[in-house]
Amino acid sequence: MKKTYFVFLLTFSFISILFSQAYQFRNNTAHTGLYSANEKFDAVQLQWLFKTDGAIRSTPLIVDNHVFFGSADHYFYCLDTNGNEAWKYKTENAVHSSPAYYNGVVFFTDRSDNLYALKASDGALIWKNKAGEALPYAWGFDYYTSSPLIVDKTLYTGSGDGNLYATDIATGKTKWKYHAGAVIRSTPAFDKGNIFFGDCDAHVYSINAENGKLNWIFKINGDTLNNEKFGYDRRAVIASPAIANNIVVVGGRDGFLYGINEANGEKIWQYDYHISWILSSVAIKDSIVVTGTSDGSFINALNITTGKEIWRYQTQAPVWASPSIAGDKIFCPGNDGALYCLDLYTGKEVWEYNTMQKFFSSPVLSGDKLFVGNDDGNFYCFKDVKRNNNDEIFRAVFWMREPPVQFFGYGMDVYIKDYFATRNYKVIDDTAITKFLQSRIGDHKKKRD
Fold this sequence. Notes:
Elements: H1 2-19, E1 22-23, E2 34-35, E3 44-51, E4 61-63, E5 66-70, E6 75-80, E7 85-90, E8 100-102, E9 105-109, E10 114-119, E11 125-130, E12 149-151, E13 154-158, E14 163-168, E15 174-179, E16 189-191, E17 194-198, E18 203-208, E19 214-219, H2 227-230, E20 242-244, E21 247-251, E22 256-261, E23 267-272, E24 283-285, E25 288-292, E26 298-303, E27 309-314, E28 324-326, E29 329-333, E30 338-343, E31 349-354, E32 364-366, E33 369-373, E34 378-384, E35 396-398, H3 412-421, E36 426-428, H4 433-448
Parallel strand pairs: 2-28, 35-36
Antiparallel strand pairs: 1-8, 3-34, 4-5, 5-6, 6-7, 8-9, 9-10, 10-11, 12-13, 13-14, 14-15, 16-17, 17-18, 18-19, 20-21, 21-22, 22-23, 24-25, 25-26, 26-27, 28-29, 29-30, 30-31, 32-33, 33-34
């Protein structure tokens, strides 16, 4: 009887380990931003909002019909997928990191470089670690902080004290740490036994995940630049690297996106955005790399092998959030408050939803829902909406060059007109409005007939 019981325990333990799955930022350890979804998301509608008292820059995590994310209001939240609060946990500082999950425990960091481990079921604290004193960083940029990466029951996180930490998931004890010597806000990625991350002093690293030994350091072009000369940072690597096809892809505040040889750290290609920062962690599918740009105010796709541009889509403001891919679509929010859905292969707009407030959180897709946080303090849940392919959507903006009454001064009328025009609205004037409306009435009559 004892022998049978012992065998049962071994079998049960093996099954538990086998089915324990890690969930984390960008949906996989290589951080390619690929999600599976049950629906096509040809159109969406807002299903619910959840209000917090601070900006939400944390990218959410969806596990077992629960949604986890942090807010600048010093709370970490757990909701169900209907938008009801399950629990919240008070933190020492704003939570701009994205959570990770393993075996019933959720992990995240706050802006004071605390690393938390909470029970996913009720938010009870299991353990908490605090990193060392933060290094001085005159060009501080803490819209994002390093998020936990989980590989083989080990957490990897960057810190303001300049260390990359490898932490035992169960105990919270440090296994090893690698001192980069500069603030680390980049979230580490993993592939083929190695950890990849950037620091705020123009470096990208490859570290052995088992022992923390350095494999190589790649210096971005910002390594030769003096921030004081420009009056803003052109050295930091805030984005998380993404790895595919043996290439590490990551952008920097020097205005370049890089394709780096995963094995030896040699540059394969670079794409020049002409000073415009690359803060987005890229999304990758097949041979296509998609990123957002800062001052360039566009989303674009490059070939991962050559670094050549495939397409670009103009936005109204910088794009700092990271794009996500599901099926043949890109989902990417911008600082203009718009959530864009684009065709992965052509860059053409499928739809757009505008909140009028900045998005720094990145979208996550699960089933027929899309989740994302906003700087207005609201957490958004959108649901896929079925649309008849035969239904064409007509969109137009009416604009008069010399209106009888001036409603908008200082060129605001032109700005509004151009805003809608870039979103595929047809611009019509007072000579075309009658014909346009008559054509719409005619179309509706035909449908009734």
